[in-house]
Design goal:
Layout: H1 3-21, H2 25-55
């Protein structure tokens, strides 16, 4: 996992949320999925950071 992966997913969220905000209800589902992916990526990054700290 990398920070770039997280930033890419945030960009996807921004695009889908903008569509949802303009009235596209199915974009709301995609935005929620993107938020779930962001949560997973963030958790994976937290684990990587913690493991890195422990190994030092």
């Amino acid at each position: 996992m990398s920070i770039q992966t997280l930033l890419d997913e945030v960009e996807v969220l921004k695009q889908e949320y903008d569509k949802f905000d303009r009235g596209n209800k199915s974009a709301g589902t995609r935005a929620r999925k993107s938020l779930q992916n962001i949560k997973k990526i963030a958790q994976d990054l937290r684990v990587e950071i913690q493991e890195s700290k422990k190994s030092e």
